[in-house]
Amino acid sequence: MIQLLPLFIAIPLGGAFIITLTSRKRKRLADVLGVCAMLPLPVMALLTVGKQGVYNMGSFLPPIGINLVLDGFSVLLLVIVNVIGFLAVLYSISYMEQYTAKYKYYALFLLMVGGMNGVVLTGDMFNLFVFLEVASIASYALVAFGCEQEELEASFKYLVLGSIGSTLILLGIALLYGLTGNLNMAAIAAVTANMDKTWLFSFASVLFLAGFGIKAALVPFHPWLPDAHPSAPAPISAMLSGVLIKALGIYAVTRVVFNVLGATPQFGMIVMIMGALSMTVGVFLAVGQWDFKRLLAYHSISQMGYVVLGIGLGMFIIATNGPLVVAGTALLGGIFHLANHAVFKSLLFLCSGSVEYETGTRQLKELGGLQEKMPLTRATCTIASLSIAGVPPFNGFWSKLIIVIATVQAAYLYPGILILTAVTILVSFVTLVSFLKVLRYVFLGDLPAVLKSIKESPAFMGISLVALSVLCVCMGLLLIPGARSIFLDPAVDVLKQGLTYGKQILAGL
Q: Where are the alpha helices (DSSP H) in 389-443?
């Protein structure tokens, strides 16, 4: 599998090129090529589970050569990105019929997937920036794909703030190169493990936190997201919320802080505060929304807060030499919620897309009584709503429970953290209230007269909804010791290893 790592980048990039050349006037060919380009990626990603290794491009060894790194953390993100990506493409076959230039859509989609796979696999800081930009630029265009005023305005705001984030990241990379003389992540880690940290090093860390924070839409860097997600086509909203903000934001900053810069108590505390703020601000802004997709966008900000809280808590405990067991629990909760959120939030955006596809509106007050007309969408949306609200036995409950347990355990060492336990539970309750409103206004009540003729969404859209619903129900099984040791524990172990991980990369793992 190690020799196949470049294919995670080459296949989607090559697919985008072929679709652009061949499918300009052939809609069905664009569908076929888009699905064929995505189909091998989730299969290959699942085959990487339990494996690790380093692929040296052109056989040049680091720190001179560029390498791709497969480990527990990158494996988990590869599976998430490519499974969700394939289901989104399948959904797009029917959904994107209402748009023109379908071949451009698939080409941009594949560029975005290729960029995300590159971010997840690269072991080089500058190539991290390059792949991040490939994915970001494709996503800017996809947000504006409808070419209406709302889409263009949202895309422009996303472009401006995203470019600021990219600039901050590039400046951080430049400072890090000036301080260490390396761009290879493992080589930088080997240097930073033994160097005295100057104020420039701290400044580079702040630049990375702000830059990747914008990509992840964490509070206070979130203003682009509530406009971008509702404006994009539904499968792109699912990709943006389900995987893009994780791959370009959460994964990247977590990898850089833990395995390149080294965790510090101050950084961990800041990340925890950002997580708590994102949870609270996002959920209370979501409660007052009547636009279905805008409501979901604010919940993305809130749910990313859970992920960042768990990761930040683990970072803080490790940096203060606290118990690794507690740190491991916090990291497990954060990483598991990252995976769970990718599934249930993608499902929610696809459900909103199905509703809008059939009714022509996403305003909750203009809907109602859809449970008889769209039973599959109603059932899958209910599952996703219960999952995001943390209702057992759905997947969101288990990851939130682990984060709550971690905060309670940490409170024995740092009593102030008990406040985070209360915030976590409160936000989960408000999330439940918010989605009860969604279910009430969309599926219950009387069916408006103008919607009497609607029907269930097409089959390809339904397949994606059902597949994600099954994952929402079954992903709690990943906590069974055997499955956990294959999927989740390796990702946690990579972060717990910190800067010593760099030595393993240089030795080829």
A: 395-411, 418-443
- How far is it, in rounded angstroms, from Cα 56 to Cα 43? 23
CA 279/CA 284 separation, integer angstroms? 9
383 token code pair: 């599952």
Q: Can you name the residues that pair with 54 across neighbouring β-strands?
A: 69
pLDDT tens digits, one per residue of 421-467: 999 999 999 999 999 999 999 998 888 888 888 888 899 999 999 99
Q: Is the torsion defined by CA of 280, 281, 287, 292 positive or negative?
A: negative
Indicate the SS3 state at residue 375: helix
With a CB cutoff of 8 Å and minimum separation 6, the contacts of 218 are 249, 274, 275, 277, 278, 301, 304, 305, 308
CB 293 within 8 A of CB 237: yes
pLDDT in tens, 381-427: 999 999 999 998 899 999 999 999 999 999 988 888 899 999 999 99
Q: What are the residue boundaries of the structural domains of the chain, listed by start?
A: 2-506
Region of 262 on the Ramachandran plot (φ > 0 left; ψ -120 to 50 alpha; else beta): left
| Per-residue pLDDT, 509 | 60
- In SS3 terms, 484-506 reads as HHHHCHHHHHHHHCCCHHHHHHH
| pLDDT reported for residue 508 | 63
Label the pairing between strands 53-56 and 67-70. Answer: antiparallel
87, two tokens: 């289901």
Cis omega (within 30 of 0) for bond into 63: yes
Q: Are 60 and 66 in contact (CB under 8 A)?
A: yes
